[in-house]
Amino acid sequence: MRYGDKVAVDGLSLTVERNTITAVLGPNGAGKTTTLETCEGYRRPQEGTVRVLGLDPVRQRRDLLPRIGVMLQGGGAWSGVRAMEMLDHVARLHAHPLDTAVLAERLGLGDCGRTPYRRLSGGQQQRLGLAMAIVGRPEIVFVDEPTAGMDPQARRTTWELLDELRQSGVTVVLTTHYLEEAEQLADQVHIIDRGRLIASGTPEELTRGSSATVRLVVDKELPQAAEAGLRASIDTWSAEHGVGVRSISFGSRTLEDVFLELTGRDIDHG
Ligand SMILES: Nc1ncnc2c1ncn2[C@@H]1O[C@H](COP(=O)(O)OP(=O)(O)OP(=O)(O)O)[C@@H](O)[C@H]1O
């Protein structure tokens, strides 16, 4: 996918299994939104092929649209419309929508149903966007940065909801630049950077390495002398067992470490 001379998505090839959550992970500008918009039929790729549920998202858009749900990054609601009006409107466009009152309550939108869209907080707008994406009982839902701007509580609720969707047979494709989100939620993670796919796998596969990390948690702050003693004990133990200790680290290998290793950059400071 190119915008003028700018290559936004470059030879990206990936497949999504049904009934799974797939995370497309990458820093700002990596090409995540462009990838989703291509799957949703909003953009026609200059090269390559895209199939969603076996259909061409541009040429067979009419057949595809009723079967997919889309949560756009920009919200997708009119600024003056009340939250529940918007959700009810979208529900009426579908043949067998979910109960909007139940869905709104589940997403914590019960108290702001009469609030105009532009007056909703960022997190509420996100949750309304998610409700609009799933109200039509889609087979596959594309969600762009579903928890951007949400507080931790709302983020957790959204993760639970996405997990429930998967359990009920919905396929979820989400973009995120939150490593924790991909790690917690996704069955498959595709890491993209500068429009290219740089790694794919389950969170476990991606964080598994040739080295092991031993994490030691102690119940009080260590005085400096104790730390030196601990290091000396580890040296003795490692010499006895023929194990080379590369570093002593306080934490497990995360997707953040993987991203750093692959790109040499921090995901939040791309
Ligand atoms: N309409 C457009 N015109 C020109 N360039 C664009 C357009 N949309 C995106 N781009 C560029 O294409 C690249 C990929 O953008 P894209 O929005 O797909 O990335 P992203 O990974 O979704 O980023 P973010 O996390 O910030 O949403 C970026 O360099 C961006 O500046």
From TrEMBL:
<dbReference type="InterPro" id="IPR027417">
    <property type="entry name" value="P-loop_NTPase"/>
</dbReference>
<keyword id="KW-0547">Nucleotide-binding</keyword>
<dbReference type="GO" id="GO:0005524">
    <property type="term" value="F:ATP binding"/>
</dbReference>
<keyword id="KW-0046">Antibiotic resistance</keyword>
<keyword id="KW-0067">ATP-binding</keyword>
<dbReference type="InterPro" id="IPR050763">
    <property type="entry name" value="ABC_transporter_ATP-binding"/>
</dbReference>
<dbReference type="InterPro" id="IPR003593">
    <property type="entry name" value="AAA+_ATPase"/>
</dbReference>
<dbReference type="InterPro" id="IPR017871">
    <property type="entry name" value="ABC_transporter-like_CS"/>
</dbReference>
<protein>
    <submittedName>
        <fullName>ABC transporter ATP-binding protein</fullName>
    </submittedName>
</protein>
<dbReference type="InterPro" id="IPR003439">
    <property type="entry name" value="ABC_transporter-like_ATP-bd"/>
</dbReference>
<feature type="domain" description="ABC transporter">
    <location>
        <begin position="1"/>
        <end position="219"/>
    </location>
</feature>
<dbReference type="Pfam" id="PF00005">
    <property type="entry name" value="ABC_tran"/>
</dbReference>
<keyword id="KW-0813">Transport</keyword>
